[in-house]
Amino acid sequence: MPLGLSRKCSAIAPSATLAMDARAKELRSQGVNVIGFAAGEPDFETPAPIREAMKEAMDLGMTRYTPVAGTLELRRAIAARLLEDHGLVYGMDEIVVSNGAKHSLYNAFQAILDPGDEVIVDKPCWVSYPEMVRMAGGVPVFLDCPESQGFLPSMEDFEKLITPRTKAFILNTPSNPNGCMWSREQLEQLADLAVKYDFYIVADEIYEKLVYSGEKHYSIATFGPEVKERTILINGVSKSYAMTGFRIGYACGPRDVIKGMVNYQSQATSAPNTAAQHAAAVALTMPQDCVEEMRRAFEQRRDRLVELINAIPGLSCRKPHGAFYVMMNIRGITGKRYHGTELSGSTAIAEALLEHAHVALVPGAAFLDEGFCRISYATSMENIEEGLRRIAAFVKELD
Ligand code: PMP
Ligand code: GLU
Predict the structure, then answer these.
(1) DSSP assignment string, 288-310
(2) Which of 149, 303, 352, 367 counts the highest number of beta carbons within 10 A?
(3) Residues 222, 191 contacting (CB under 8 angstroms)
(4) Taking phi first (over 0 means left), then psi (-120 to 50 degrees means alpha), and beta for anything else, what does residue 174 get?
(5) If you take atom 6 of ligand 1, which residue's CA is the nearest one?
(6) Shortest-distance atom of ligand 1 to CA 104
(7) Peptide bond before 287: cis, by omega within 30 degrees of 0?
(8) CA separation for the pair 374, 366 (Å, rounded)
(9) Nearest to 147 by CA among 123, 170, 172
């Protein structure tokens, strides 16, 4: 038997967001002054009580395995936060903690998908959704959410995609990569479809705390017991508490699904890092003012970034409602030339910007939407001003 990768592994595309971030960091380590708009990683320091909890965990002897589903301390903290924020009630056997929300999503698809099962995915979508579905043997079925519709789907289009193989829909509101949010009315329509056709809603609520202009995030599991029993709620501490490196995420849902995810995890990874679970429990239970402070800073950055993009001829964007990303429309500069090099699409534009302007962003192609590049504004106002100054100078050079 020849050596080599399996067909399954060869088919997996690397995460474009992480790859772009790694390239920016590498250039920076070589002394290049790169402005990083690539990864969605809050630049704020992790709040002090959380860092203290991580240190305290060592003194408390938290150095051993925990139950596979996560410590009771953390699962109780998750349940208390969901009760306080949304009035949702989850028991300890309806919660599983994993190595980041990414891992929770991965486990969820492994738990619910059989080969050939279909999962409806908004397009543009976060890079990892289609790959995770495929890794679990499923088939992503794409639902177009054009910019002209505010990156939201038409529910008629949605219903047309449903087949007897439809096992789930991934709901990501507020959304990565475009910051759109589903209205309550649209969520109600989705809930009706899920009950009528009997599919899961994998509700990725990782950006729920990052909502602007006084809008409100609704957790779809609150839309009645029939909806809750079809919802796999995914969340984590990475974005709300600036804890990306702690690698703690969680899933809440029907007992059988959670049990399947725990079984999967018990064979693949065991429980996540013990000390980080303690720090996450502190994050979820401490006074939440720091979350609001970070949210306010993101909102100011969003407003400035949107203003700066729309002032550049050939570029434009809509104002996102949540998360910390803007999909910048690049159609006005696609096909132009930078010093003789044709900017044929989003990848060519992102590469040219990195090489010549030292600005790292993610090509829309990674999110299955060519006419855009994604800018993450999880970075300082100074970087936003300087990065957009560089982009404007780059665009001026085009012919
Ligand atoms: N969902 C979405 C939409 C994301 O953007 C991210 C960011 N990586 C995640 C889930 C996972 O975050 P983490 O694994 O850091 O909890
Ligand atoms: N979710 C963030 C992003 O989209 C972090 C990188 C990743 O996990 O994909 O940039």
Answers:
(1) -HHHHHHHHHHHHHHHHHHHHHH
(2) 367
(3) no
(4) beta
(5) 102
(6) 14
(7) no
(8) 9
(9) 123
Q: Are 229 and 254 in contact (CB under 8 A)?
A: yes
Nearest CA to ligand 2 atom 1: 40
Nearest ligand (C-alpha, residue 241): 1
Q: List the pLDDT tens digit at each of the 399 positions of the chain.
A: 889 999 889 988 888 888 888 888 899 999 999 999 998 999 999 999 999 999 999 999 999 999 999 999 999 999 999 999 999 999 999 999 999 999 999 999 999 999 999 999 999 999 999 999 999 999 999 999 999 999 999 999 999 999 999 999 999 999 999 999 999 999 999 999 999 999 999 999 999 999 999 999 999 999 999 999 999 999 999 999 999 999 999 999 999 999 999 999 999 999 999 999 999 999 999 999 999 999 999 999 999 999 999 999 999 999 999 999 999 999 999 999 999 999 999 999 999 999 999 999 999 999 999 999 999 999 999 999 999 999 999 999 999
Amino acid letter for position 105: L
**Rounded to 5 degrees, what angle do the CA atoms 280, 286, 291 make?**
85
Residue with tokens 């679970």: 277
| Ligand 2 atom closest to 41 (CA) | 5
Ligand found nearest the CA of 374: 2
Phi, then psi, of 119 in degrees rounded to 5:
-125, 125
Q: Comparing C-alpha atoms, which of 46, 48, 27 is closest to residue 36?
A: 27
The amino acid at 70: G
pTM: 0.96
Residue 337 CA to its chain's centroid (Å): 33
